[in-house]
Specification:
The complex is a heterodimer.
Chain A lengths: L3 E2 L10 H7 L1 H4 L10 H4 L2 H15 L6 E5 L2 H17 L6 E5 L4 H12 L3 E5 L9 H7 L4 E5 L13 H10 L3 E5 L18 E5 L10 E5 L25 H16 L1 H21 L3 E3 L10 E6 L4 H10 L2 E2 L1 E2 L12 H5 L10 E5 L6 H21 L4
Parallel strand pairs in A: 1-11, 3-4, 3-5, 5-6, 6-7
Antiparallel strand pairs in A: 2-8, 7-8, 9-10, 10-13, 12-13
Chain B lengths: L2 H4 L10 H8 L9 H6 L2 E10 L4 E10 L5 E9 L2 H14 L4 H4 L4 H7 L14 H18 L4 H5 L3 E3 L4 E2 H11 L4 H8 L21 H16 L14 H21 L3 E10 L5 E9 L5 H18 L4 E5 L1
Parallel strand pairs in B: 7-8
Antiparallel strand pairs in B: 1-2, 2-3, 4-5, 6-7
Helix pairs in contact in B: 2-4, 4-7, 6-7, 7-10, 9-11, 12-13
The chains are: A alpha/beta, B alpha+beta.
Chain lengths: 386, 322
C-alpha cells in the first residue's frame, strides 16, 4: 500500500539531497574535526561552510553564536537550565514567564525549576488560541529573568506575535527565548529583524536528519553549558559534533530557505484545499485563521468523531496524521488548545492535525479528502452523538 | 527501567489483533428499537454512560426476554477511540445469552481478557484500561434501568471525579479488583483524576469531598486487614472516642517519639486533634526544647512523627505544626 505522510510537524523525511550531502562524512571524511592530523583538518572547511549556511538561514550576525547540539529539546533545556545556574539561582531574578502551549521540553524543564523554587508564570492562550505581547507585558516583573514563547504552535500551526513579544522583553531588559522548531522552512526566520536572545530548532522538522539541532544565542549573551567536558562549540557544548548531522542540517536549512516560496504557494494551496474539503463536512471546526498559520498545518475538530478513532481509520488507509486527543496520549488530558479557545467541551477529544510538507502531492491530498470523508461517515454512524 | 522500557511503548502496537479487528469491524454496533423488542418478545433497555467532553461515551441497547430475563440482543453506539469501540463491542457480545443478573457480573477485566490474543498478554496498554471500565459501567446502568431502580439513586452516587463522572464505588472497585497501588493506576483504570486533577489530592483548583490519595490509602488498608484478619492494626483507631484517640497518640509519642527527640534535647507536645468525616485525623503538635525553631524540625522530624503515628495507629493521620 502506498502510504501518505501528513504528520510533518512530528518529523519529516530526509531530503535525498541532504542525505547526499551527509554521505561522504561517514566512511570517507570521518575524522574528528578537533584532531590535529589531516583526517581532522579535511573536515573543517565543510564545517565552516555548514556554519555559514546556518547563519545565513536564520539571519544571524557573525558575532552571534549558533551552537550545534542534538535537538531543540536539548537547546530548550540548555536555555532553561542555563538561566537557572546563571541568574535564577543566585541573583534577584527569580522568575520565568512561559506559556501553556509550549513543547514538553520547555514545560517540564520549567516545572523542574519550580521545584527548585523558581516562580514560573504560565500564560494561557486567549480565545483565539494566541499569546499576545500585552499578556507578556502584564506579567513581566523586576524579578523576571526570561520569557520563553514558541514561534508557532505545533498542534495548530498558529504563529505567535514573536516580534512584538521580543520588543516587550527588550524594553523590560528581560531575556527572550523562542522555540522555532515549527517555523524553519515554513515562514522566513530572521533574528536580525527583531530582538530575540535565544532561538532553538531541530533539523528533522525541516527535512534534515534526526538527532541534530541548533541553539542561537545573540552576541553578548552567555549561558553555562548543559554538557561539560570539551572545548567544542567554543566551550558552549562539549562533545564531538555529529559531523554528518551538522552538514545535513546545514544543507536542509539551505533547502528550507530556497523552498520558502514553494511552501507559501504550493504547500499552502494543498493545505487550503484539504482544509476547504474538511470544512464541507457538517459540524467541523478548524482552529486559527489560516492566514495566521504555518502554511502546512490544519487542525480540525469534527463533532462526534473521537480523534484517535479518526487517525486509526486514516492509518488503516495508509495515511499518517496525528491527534492531540486525550485518548491517544498517555496523559489522557483534554487538548489544551481546544480548551483554551473555549471550544464546546464535547470537542475536546476530537482534534486531528494534518501537517503537509513540500513533498506532499495533490494526488495525496485528493486521496486523503476521500478517506477522511468515508471515515467520518463510518465513525459518526457508530457515534452516540450522531 | 529496563531494556524494553527505554524505547517506550507504542500505544497501537500494544493493542491485540482482536481489538484491531473489532475496531475495524465491530459486530454489534447499531441500535435496537421497540419493534425489535416486540419481535423478540422482550423489553428494550437503553443505557448511556460517559460524556463526550471526557473523551468517550457509550450507549448500550438490550432486549431482555419477558419470560426469562435473558438478554436476547445487544447493540451499542460509541464515541471513543479504538479500544473503547472494541471493548464495548466485546461487552455487547458477552451480554447476549446471559440473564441480567449474570451480565452484571461481567467486569472490565472479563472484557479485556476476552479481547486478548494470548492468555498472558494484555489486550490493551494500561492507559487504555478505562475504556473497558466504561463498558462494564454501562452494564450496571442498563441493569439498574431494567430493574427500574430509580435513576436518581444512580446519579446521587458519590462522585469522586466530576470530569469523568467516576463514583466512589467505581474507584474502590477498581482498586480492589485490579489490586491498584498508585493514583496513576487509578487514573489509568477509571479516568478519575485524568482531567482537571482536582480529585487527586487537596490543593487542586477545586475543593473535593473525596481525594484519590485518601481513598487509595483507606482501601489499601482495608485490603491489608482483610488479608490479615488477626493482625491488630491501628484500624480501630477511627472508631475510638476522641479521648481514647488522644491517649493512643500520647502513648505512641511517649513510647516511640519522645525518646528519640530527647536524644537531641528536644521534645514534642500534642496541641490539637481534628478528625474529618472522610476518616482523616489531623494531629497538631508543638515542638519543645531544641526542636523549637530548628529549621530541620519542620521537614525531618515532622515526617518522622507522622510516619510513626501512621505505622502505629492509622494511615489516615496527618501531622502538622500548630
Amino acid at each position: 500500500m502506498e502510504r501518505i505522510f501528513l504528520d510533518n510537524n512530528a518529523t519529516t523525511l530526509v531530503d535525498p539531497s541532504v542525505r547526499d550531502a551527509m554521505e561522504p562524512f561517514y566512511c570517507q571524511m570521518y575524522g574528528n574535526p578537533n584532531s590535529l592530523h589531516s583526517f581532522g583538518i579535511e573536515v573543517r572547511p565543510y564545517l565552516h561552510r555548514a556554519m555559514e549556511l546556518l547563519y545565513a538561514g536564520i539571519g544571524a550576525d557573525d558575532e552571534d553564536d549558533i551552537i550545534i547540539n542534538s535537538c531543540a529539546t536539548e537547546g530548550n533545556n540548555t536555555v532553561i537550565m542555563g538561566m537557572y545556574f546563571s541568574l535564577l539561582k543566585e541573583t534577584r531574578k527569580k522568575s520565568i514567564v512561559t506559556t501553556k502551549l509550549e513543547h514538553p521540553s520547555i514545560r517540564e524543564a520549567c516545572r523542574f525549576l519550580e521545584k527548585q523554587g523558581v516562580k514560573v508564570t504560565w500564560l494561557s492562550p486567549n480565545a483565539d488560541g494566541l499569546i499576545t505581547a500585552q499578556m507578556v507585558r502584564e506579567v513581566i516583573s523586576d524579578t523576571t529573568a526570561l520569557v520563553s514563547v514558541m514561534w508557532a504552535n505545533n498542534e495548530t500551526g498558529q504563529i505567535l506575535p514573536i516580534e512584538e513579544i521580543g520588543h516587550v522583553c527588550r524594553e523590560r531588559g528581560v531575556y527572550f527565548h523562542t522555540d522555532a522548531v515549527q517555523v524553519i522552512g515554513k515562514i522566513p526566520v530572521d533574528v536580525s529583524a527583531f530582538p530575540v536572545d535565544f532561538l532553538t530548532f531541530s533539523a528533522h522538522k525541516f527535512h534534515g536528519p534526526k538527532g541534530v539541532g541548533g541553539l542561537y544565542m545573540r552576541k553578548g549573551v552567555s549561558l553555562p553549558p548543559l554538557l561539560h567536558g570539551g572545548e567544542q562549540m567554543g566551550g558552549h557544548r562539549a562533545g564531538t559534533v555529529d559531523v554528518p548531522g551538522f552538514i545535513g542540517m546545514a544543507r536542509a536549512m539551505e533547502l528550507a530557505v530556497e523552498n520558502l516560496d514553494h511552501e507559501q504557494n504550493h504547500v499552502r494551496k494543498l493545505r487550503d484545499k484539504l482544509e476547504d474539503a474538511l470544512l464541507e463536512i457538517k459540524d467541523v471546526l478548524v482552529v486559527g485563521d489560516r492566514a495566521m498559520r504555518t502554511p502546512n498545518t490544519v487542525y480540525v475538530s469534527i463533532r462526534g468523531v473521537e480523534g484517535e478513532a479518526l487517525i486509526w481509520d486514516l492509518n488503516q488507509a495508509g495515511i499518517a496524521a496525528s491527534t492531540g486527543s486525550a485518548c491517544a496520549s498517555e496523559s489522557l488530558e483534554a487538548s489544551p488548545i481546544l480548551t483554551a479557545i473555549g471550544a464546546d467541551k464535547d470537542l475536546a477529544h476530537t482534534g486531528v492535525r494534518f501537517s503537509l510538507s513540500r513533498f506532499t502531492t495533490a494526488e495525496e491530498i485528493n486521496y486523503t479528502i476521500d478517506v477522511v470523508k468515508k471515515a467520518v461517515i463510518r465513525l459518526r454512524s457508530m457515534s452516540t452523538s450522531y | 527501567m529496563a531494556k524494553n522500557d527505554l524505547i517506550g511503548g507504542s500505544l497501537w502496537e500494544q493493542y491485540s489483533q482482536k481489538v484491531a479487528e473489532r475496531m475495524n469491524n465491530p459486530r454489534y454496533f447499531g441500535e435496537l428499537t421497540e419493534e425489535d423488542a416486540k419481535r423478540l418478545n422482550g423489553k428494550l433497555v437503553i443505557a448511556n454512560e460517559g460524556a463526550e467532553s471526557c473523551g468517550d461515551t457509550v450507549r448500550l441497547y438490550w432486549i431482555v426476554g419477558n419470560d426469562d430475563e435473558v438478554i436476547k440482543a445487544a447493540a451499542f453506539k460509541s464515541f471513543g477511540c479504538g479500544t473503547a469501540i472494541a471493548s464495548t463491542d466485546m461487552m455487547a457480545e458477552m451480554c447476549i445469552g446471559k440473564t441480567v443478573a449474570e451480565a452484571t457480573k461481567i467486569t472490565n477485566l472479563d472484557v479485556e481478557r476476552a479481547l486478548r490474543d494470548t492468555e498472558d498478554i494484555a489486550a490493551v496498554p494500561p492507559q487504555k484500561m478505562h475504556c473497558s471500565v466504561m463498558a462494564y459501567e454501562v452494564i450496571k446502568r442498563a441493569a439498574a434501568i431494567y430493574r427500574n431502580v430509580d435513576i436518581s439513586t444512580l446519579e446521587e452516587k458519590d462522585i469522586v471525579c466530576e470530569c469523568a463522572r467516576v463514583t466512589l464505588q467505581t474507584v474502590e472497585d477498581a482498586i480492589r479488583i485490579n489490586d491498584l497501588t498508585t493514583v496513576e493506576e487509578i487514573t489509568d483504570y477509571t479516568k478519575a483524576g485524568a482531567f482537571c486533577k482536582s480529585c487527586i489530592e487537596p490543593g487542586g483548583h477545586e475543593k473535593r469531598k473525596y481525594y484519590l490519595v485518601d481513598i487509595l490509602a483507606r482501601v489499601r488498608a482495608e485490603m491489608l486487614r482483610e488479608q490479615n484478619p488477626d493482625q491488630e492494626e491501628g484500624d480501630d483507631f477511627a472508631s475510638l472516642s476522641v479521648v481514647k484517640k488522644i491517649r493512643a497518640i500520647e502513648k505512641v509519642l511517649d513510647d516511640n517519639v519522645r525518646p528519640v527527640l530527647a536524644r537531641d534535647g528536644g521534645g514534642i507536645e500534642l496541641d490539637d486533634l481534628e478528625c474529618e468525616d472522610a476518616g482523616i485525623c489531623v494531629v497538631s503538635v508543638q515542638y519543645m526544647g531544641a526542636c523549637k525553631g530548628c529549621a530541620g524540625s519542620v521537614a525531618g522530624t515532622l515526617s518522622f512523627v507522622q510516619q510513626t503515628l501512621q505505622e502505629k495507629l492509622s494511615p489516615f493521620i496527618e501531622v502538622k505544626v500548630a
